[in-house]
Design goal:
Blueprint lengths: L2 E6 L5 H16 L3 E4 L5 H11 L4 E5 L13 E4 L7 H7 L2 E5 L3 H12 L4 E4 L5 E2 L2 E2 L6 E3 L3 H16 L2
Parallel strand pairs: 1-2, 1-5, 2-3, 3-4, 5-6, 6-9
Antiparallel strand pairs: 7-8
Length: about 160
């Protein structure tokens, strides 16, 4: 089973929501299970896209109620953990696609990278280490569009599975 985590802000621009919806649709077309934080914004858009192509979605929710989940989440998982649930979101996928995002997204990127889970970035954070451009250490694999993001996520997940 292939599983990709998709992360991004609950308050996304229409452009980021469109990108997320396209990513969700492309993942579902390829039979990939989508995991996200289950709320609004990028999370809702990726679930909407996946559902439109017949995919399955899992939402790792921060609170105590299934009612928090966006209407496109098939399997809501209640954590009662608040932002701490970001660890679960980041670690549940074989790779992570980050679309836009605020500080919660940044934490998920850090959790993934800290455990060598590939992160593909689509209009998301740029990292700097000791004044060095993030491309020096290749922390986030940059994608040019939703299909490129999915291609790179699946390639990175496959490479990780064979490492």
């Amino acid at each position: 089973m292939r599983i990709i985590s998709v992360i991004g802000s609950s308050k996304a621009t229409p452009e980021l929501e469109s990108l997320a919806e396209q990513v969700g649709r492309e993942l579902a077309r390829r039979g990939v299970l989508v995991i996200c934080g289950g709320l609004t914004g990028v999370m809702e858009a990726v679930c909407r896209g996946a559902k439109s192509a017949g995919g399955t979605t899992i939402g790792i929710l921060p609170g105590r109620s299934v009612a928090e989940a966006n209407p496109y989440v098939d399997i809501p998982i209640i954590t009662t953990m608040g932002y701490t649930r970001n660890v679960i979101v980041a670690h549940s996928g074989q790779a992570v696609i980050a679309i836009g995002g605020a500080f919660g997204t940044l934490s998920e990127i850090a959790f993934a990278l800290g455990d060598h889970i590939p992160v593909i970035g689509l209009k998301t954070w740029r990292l700097d280490r000791n004044g060095q451009d993030e491309l020096v250490d290749g922390a986030i694999i940059r994608a040019s569009d939703p299909v490129d993001a999915v291609n790179k996520a699946l390639e990175a997940a496959e490479a990780r599975n064979h490492a």
